[in-house]
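Next comes the chain:
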Amino acid sequence: MNNEVINAMIERRSIRKYKPDMVDKEIIDEIIKAGLYAASGRGYQAVIIVSVTDKKLRDRLMEMNRKIGGWDEGFDPFYGAPAVLIVLADKSVPTRVYDGSLVMGNLMLAAHTLGVGSCWIHRAKEEFESEEGKEILKSLGIEGDYEGIGHCVLGYPDEEKPPIKRKENRVFYAD
């Protein structure tokens, strides 16, 4: 069976080396659109996406992330990706982490199909539980109590990633 969507799922890889060129806004908007159509518990659509293409804010987030991760100064946990989509979910919704994870999956898959590399970067939860993170959201006009689910970094790949062989014995049938 040959299916375009399934083939994209099989071919997509996390990219950890990016060219400095910014992704076109129209492409970022298409990726965001795919994220907004992710399934959500009870249809609450409690996830929001913050698109960051401003280098100063991107670098500020990267530095916060680096410190939380405990890496040495100069390390970029966003791997040089010029754009970041921050996925946040309403803390009052019990399915927020699952819903946000589905959004992240859609973002990464959409990016791949549009020729854009992506990678899920963790530590958004810690970033946006901090006073600095809350201040950033407030400065962007975002009100409410949100949990950081992840950063979907975006950029044009500066590396080739072959498909990874899947581990054996991961499916069990109860026919």
Summary: The chain has a mean pLDDT of 97. Strands lie at 47-52, 83-90, 117-121, 146-155. The two ends are 22 Å apart (CA to CA).
